[in-house]
Amino acid sequence: MTRTASHPAVRAAAPFHPADHDDAWWRSAVIYQIYPRSWADSDGDGMGDLPGITARLEHLQYLGVDAIWLSPFYTSPQADAGYDVADYRDVDPRFGALADADALLARAHELGLKVIVDLVPNHSSDEHAWFRAALAAGPGSPERDRYIFRDGRGPAGDEPPNNWDSVFGGSAWTRVTEADGTPGQWYLHLFDPKQPDFNWDHDEVRAEFESVLRFWLDRGVDGFRVDVAHGLVKQPGLPDWHNRTHMLGETDEAAAHVLDKVKPQPTNLSPYWDQDGVHEIYRSWRRVLDSYGTPARILCAEAWVEPQERAVLYTRPDEMHQAFNFDFLGTPWVAEDLVAVIERSLEAADSVGAPSTWVLSNHDVVRHATRLGYAPGTKRKNGIGADDPQPDRARGLQRARAATTLMLGLPGGAYLYQGEELGLPESTTMPDEFRQDPTFVRTGGEELGRDGCRVPIPWTKDAPGFGFGPSDRTWLPQPEVYGDYAVDQQRGVAGSTLELYRTLLATRAELGLGRASLALVEGYAADVVALEAAGPESGRVLVLANLGDEAVELPAGADVVAASGPLADGRVPTDTTVWARLA
Ligand code: NOJ
């Protein structure tokens, strides 16, 4: 492609993605992730809670999202910040009580927000009643059979049953001490030892989770984000496997896969990820959800599955509604890579009739305002500390705004992570003594872990704890600079990141961009992403992200309806994305 000097004539190729004529709410919804520990604290203990969330929901109506997804708030010893559930049918006292969950649901619905809760079916807490019963009942008991207990290898049984590593580092097996005080069997935990994996071959496990689904559906939730959806079924015999799975925060290989620079390693070759048997579970769940009628209650898979063709199997018409698209999150700030991942994602999703989803940040990865403050292609790490190279914060924010403007111009569903609407950076200098992610300890500090993206949200600049709660306590320290990003510094302020997000969400809804067709636009340089969205409400809209060094001309007559930053004499500067209606 050659650079066009001025006023390029926009020539869109034939759409590679058709317009979506199904108006089910979830197919184009923008869903905002709330991490309950860190959004808003009502009682001053420094830990966020459900009443804190309820009191602040109006912020999300102002922002203009369709739904919220709440990370786990269930009874839990918090060994993995709530992804270690001890009681799936109750609220942890740190976060409130069941009545607070009901009040949150009612208020959200009153404000027109749907509510998705997190479901953690791969593992429970070791403090779950079933696991306690399993320990007490001993080897060979029916109680043990609900989890994955095995005898150890070696003459004394003192070696783990196989060589699997935990995602958090170290062995995936822990040996128990039997009731008589002797060293006993081992149990599997793909994550922390305090997160024993369920045995999904067991009918009681299957029945229990259908019952848990109904418990929350009956209370009125609109859906579930399904944790580790690709992990429930293990290969029979639990064969050795010579790979360690890393959290999705760590590499740029996903993007490399997209361009076939590195051959994708099908995830199902692992004996514990993406086994074909998981799909029957989701078919049965879909039947449960469908029995609640319309508007649909939905399932969204958190499944780190390669390649895309396998990932979309989770969203076949009789399985889940959505799956997170982590390839997009892992793509470096390189135009060709972004175009490739957008095309591949939509084509793969279209092959099963599902919408794609888009996401740039969540509670497991370095925030994108910080990630993009490093040179494109920099190897991503699981956490950043004071000894690491520090990001270029201004550049990161500019690119983050451009990346979000690109993302929200794409058809399908989109997920936002709390604080990104403020342009919030990662905490990159947190002293180690505050770190709580189990990865930090289990890797001996080699991986700093995910605390840096989980820091409590700043609401008010001139208030203790930046207004997180009524006291100055926050469970993780807030960087001083967070005050400048506080909601009260941005609300109603033209050009702020909060107001940019509002404009994007309102314009996206008004133009129906979430259901538009998409085509590549020819005639721009290779460092420009140029797409044409088209639909009945929008007409033709150019979504153009300039990742190159030179400002880019817009076509004659283009009417800019949103821009991630100021234009320069009508041209689109470096690291800026615009949406422009075409005549
Ligand atoms: C994925 C969750 O997003 C993450 O936070 C958690 O540590 C693991 N699953 C284990 O539940």
TrEMBL record:
GO terms in the biological process aspect are: oligosaccharide catabolic process
Q: Name one Pfam family in it.
A: Alpha-amylase
Gene3D superfamilies, sorted: Glycosidases, Oligo-1,6-glucosidase, Domain 2
Q: Does Glycoprotein count among this protein's keywords?
A: yes
**Positions in coiled-coil regions:** none
- Alphabetized SMART domains for the sequence: Aamy
Gene Ontology MF: a single term: alpha-amylase activity
Keywords in alphabetical order, please: Glycoprotein
Give the similarity note. Belongs to the glycosyl hydrolase 13 family.
Statement: the UniProt record of this protein carries the keyword Hydrolase: no
Superkingdom, taxonomy of origin: Bacteria
Report the protein name in the record: Alpha-amylase
The record's section on InterPro entries has:
GH, GH13_cat_dom, O16G_dom_2
| Residues in Glycosyl hydrolase family 13 catalytic domain copies | 33-454
The record's CDD domains line, in alphabetical order, gives: AmyAc_OligoGlu_TS
